[in-house]
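Figure 2 data, in text form.
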Amino acid sequence: MNELIFRGKDRYRPSWSHVALLAVLMAVEGAAAAVQLGAAGFCWLLGGTVVLTGLALFLVRRTWTTVGAAGITICWGFGRGRTHPWHEVRWIDVRETKAEYGVARMARITLADGRRRSLPGLMHSDTYPRPDFDVDFQRVVNWWELSTDQAARVQPPRLMRDRVSPTVIGLLLGLLISVVVVAVVVVQG
């Protein structure tokens, strides 16, 4: 089988609407900074925004996953990446996250020690659709099945983070923070 490569730079290309939105936000930020902070504050804020935006774009474009005979190599933007040999990979599945902006699906592996790693470059969402996601995911599974013994494939138990959506976690944290704030106000009042 041929080595599979999934690169972030092939997937995450900013659209003109994203660039226009960023330009509008920077113009608003610049106007507010110029009025409130003066020329020096404006320059610092603008420079920091440019550096952080550039760093984020650099990292996104350098993410990749390679699947081959040695195993699965994952790189999140820095360095050469880390290879997880096939004998360490216990399970491969798809993590589906629902949010108000749509559904995101990302392939992930579970290692022998129980850690889970997402595979950058191999995801599908409404913002960055990947029409061939299911086919590519099946190609990764085929590599895994050909490279491991069936006895070594163990589906991990579902963890709390697999059962609870990020929205529910946010609501629970918001409720907890509200209760703590009310308790502090009552105690001090």
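Caption note: The mean pLDDT is 86.
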